[in-house]
Description:
This protein is mainly β. The chain has one domain (39-328). Helix content is 9%, strand content 39%. It has helices at residues 11-26, 153-156, 264-267, 290-293; strands at residues 39-50, 53-54, 61-64, 69-87, 92-94, 96-97, 103-106, 109-115, 132-138, 142-149, 173-174, 179-180, 183-189, 202-205, 211-216, 219-223, 226-230, 238-242, 246-251, 258-263, 275-276, 301-303, 309-311, 324-328. The strands form six sheets. Strands 3, 4, 5, 7, 8, 10, 13, 16 and 19 form a nine-stranded antiparallel β-sheet that branches. Strands 1, 2, 6, 9, 20 and 24 form a six-stranded mixed β-sheet that branches. A three-stranded mixed β-sheet has the order 15-14-21, with no helix packed on it. Strand 1 (39-50) and strand 2 (53-54) form a beta hairpin. The chain is globular and about 80 Å long. It starts with 10 loop residues before the first helix and ends with a strand. InterPro entries: MbnP-like, MbnP-like_dom. Residues 1-25 form the signal peptide. Residues 39-284 form the Copper-binding protein MbnP-like domain. Keywords: Signal.
Amino acid sequence: MLPNIPHLLPSGLLALLTASALLTACGGGDDDTEEAPTTQAVSIEFVATVGGTPVSCASTLEGLGTTGAKAKVQDLRFYVSNVKLTNDKGEEVLVTLDANDFQLTSAGQTVALIDLEDGSGFCAGDKLLHVAVTGTVPQGTYAGVEMTLGVPEALNHSESTVAAAPLDNKDMAWSWQAGRKFVKIEVNPENATTAGTFTQGIKKFNADGSATGTFNNSFYFHLGNTGCAVDSTKSWGYSCTSDNTRTFHLHGFDPQKQRITVDLKALFALSNLVEEHGGAGGCMSGGTDPECQAMWSVIGSSFDASGNSVQDSENEFFHGHTIFRALAK
């Protein structure tokens, strides 16, 4: 008969082996407790609309401007920066952006390019879309969003041919103002004499009010900083007399249930889209451009002849009630 092996082991070693066996049998040797996540994903989605109706490059827009014009989208892109959510303590929390070709974190700033055109039809860009700012925030409850329309000055004047994405987008470069187009929204109104044709729909006029006999295809709204000049005292190489970024907020915004509309009807509410009375086509942030005079107030601003802007903080644009506002998903 074999000897009773446990009795041949020293008592201390026997106790140690017994304890080890019990821990293994009960799973006590492994730490199965999962730590609670400290962050949560967030996606803040945008959608182009006319009123409350979503539109795209394939849509015929109706009821735009002071004449109720029909139009087609030609471009619909804009930058937003330093997006923040408001938590249940009333604190604004910066969204840590996911790194991709449409979002960038640099020099302590965050910027994202929202691209709502897909290159089809009259749309001038490419087929890639970027409809949402995505990233993470600390775990919590949030009910509000704030962001700046435009590119922070520390990033605005980088050379687009060598800049990191999305600041490398050549279509959004604004070389004559040494920076970026913060907003590039363009529409083609319907031809006045040929229904369903969206070229030659904007009649041009001289300063004295007489018709030139020529027409434009597109009404441009390009927003960017103005009065920009080389400035060696700035680390980014330029200074501008007017910073035309615009910070707006939406109270009670829930990104899980809502998205942000970019309402083209509200944007062009005071514009006559079928007439051009001087300056650049449409409005390219010119202080004396007649078409710009009708557009400044819709973004809560006034501009002098030099292109310097003054913001009206009480304007509903800044409080998420006009162009940018919440819309149920």
